[in-house]
């Protein structure tokens, strides 16, 4: 158990809909990261938040957004969903500002299926 | 453009023998490398890491070797156990990117046969 929790575990929805994925980091960790794992793209970085502020952005679509709240939990919002958004979405956390030498610890993931 | 590559999608070894998983990277600015293990329906689990200032790091049965000139790293598991059967991802950070984003390889599925 990494200490990172994600809800829900599974989500089935229809195209065009909007969903929210939730992540609680390990106790004391200030940075939260979101990754997407799809069959054809592997694990890809989406976005990082540090202590409530956006820190880095990766291959995140404009239809997707995220935020980190004062209690440090984070939510990833996916809107106007398309079939291709079906994937595993992982949250990870690390202790501090996101130095390159920090280890990220991953949650169990949310499996999203868009029908 | 894949900056981190794991060219072997799968590897099969006998229990008790050595497992060697390989990873190549192209971005010479990467300065921290990690290996994660992933079981089905679970998130990646951190295994071992190495800074670019080192060429070897050991933790129990797991050793990671880094060859910066070749832009190559490898994970050695000795002795291999059936419970080691999983998908292994190498990842890199730094690379001139803001924050601490990890760039992952495509993974290698390791099967350890009893």
Description of the structure:
- The complex is a heterodimer of chains A (115) and B (114).
- Chain A is mainly beta.
- The mean pLDDT of chain A is 93.
- Chain A has strands at residues 5-7, 10-13, 19-24, 31-38, 42-50, 53-57, 64-68, 74-78, 87-94, 105-106, 110-114.
- The radius of gyration of chain A is 13 Å and the shape is globular.
- By secondary structure, chain B is an all-beta fold.
- Chain B contains no helices and eleven strands.
Produce the secondary structure layout.
The complex is a heterodimer of chains A (115) and B (114).
Chain A: E1 5-7, E2 10-13, E3 19-24, E4 31-38, E5 42-50, E6 53-57, E7 64-68, E8 74-78, E9 87-94, E10 105-106, E11 110-114
Parallel strand pairs in A: 2-11
Antiparallel strand pairs in A: 1-3, 3-8, 4-5, 4-9, 5-6, 7-8, 9-10, 9-11
Chain B: E1 4-5, E2 10-14, E3 19-25, E4 30-38, E5 45-51, E6 56-59, E7 62-67, E8 72-77, E9 86-94, E10 103-104, E11 108-113
Parallel strand pairs in B: 2-11
Antiparallel strand pairs in B: 1-3, 3-8, 4-5, 4-9, 6-7, 7-8, 9-10, 9-11
